[in-house]
Automatic annotation (TrEMBL):
Protein name as catalogued: Carboxymuconolactone decarboxylase family protein
Gene3D superfamilies the record matches: AhpD-like
Organism encoding this protein: Enterobacter chinensis
InterPro entries, alphabetized: 4CMD/NDH-1_regulator (IPR052512), AhpD-like (IPR029032), CMD-like (IPR003779)
Source taxon at top rank: Bacteria
A Pfam match: CMD
Domain Carboxymuconolactone decarboxylase-like: 15-99
Taxonomic lineage from the root: Bacteria, Pseudomonadati, Pseudomonadota, Gammaproteobacteria, Enterobacterales
Length: 102
């Protein structure tokens, strides 16, 4: 059984990785004006799906919602990815969305 790490649990296990994630990834990369947070969320969900990183997908589904992406848009992105990332990857990502809706 895998555990999804979030900021608090990541900080407990690896304070430096949590610090770098916050400072570099979220306070710098996610704030760059060339892409909106909404676009970054869709790109991130696509990359995680294509790479099979399903443990990270639930957190990013929630973050995408905070960034204005609807569940319907997330489902459509995963459906679209079935043809580029593979059917199993898309179905696994959709399973994460279904789990998050419960």
């Amino acid at each position: 059984m895998s555990t999804t790490l979030h900021r608090d649990t990541l900080a407990q296990l690896s304070p430096k990785l949590a610090e770098l994630s916050q400072q570099v990834l979220f306070d710098d990369i996610w704030q760059r004006p060339q892409l909106s947070p909404r676009e970054r969320s869709l790109i991130t969900l696509a990359a995680l799906t294509a790479l099979g990183r399903t443990a990270q997908i639930p957190w990013h589904i929630d973050y995408a919602r905070q960034n204005g992406v609807t569940d319907e848009e997330i489902a459509e992105a995963f459906t679209h990815l079935a043809f580029y990332a593979g059917w199993p990857a898309a179905v696994s990502a959709l399973a994460c969305l279904a789990e998050e809706k419960r």
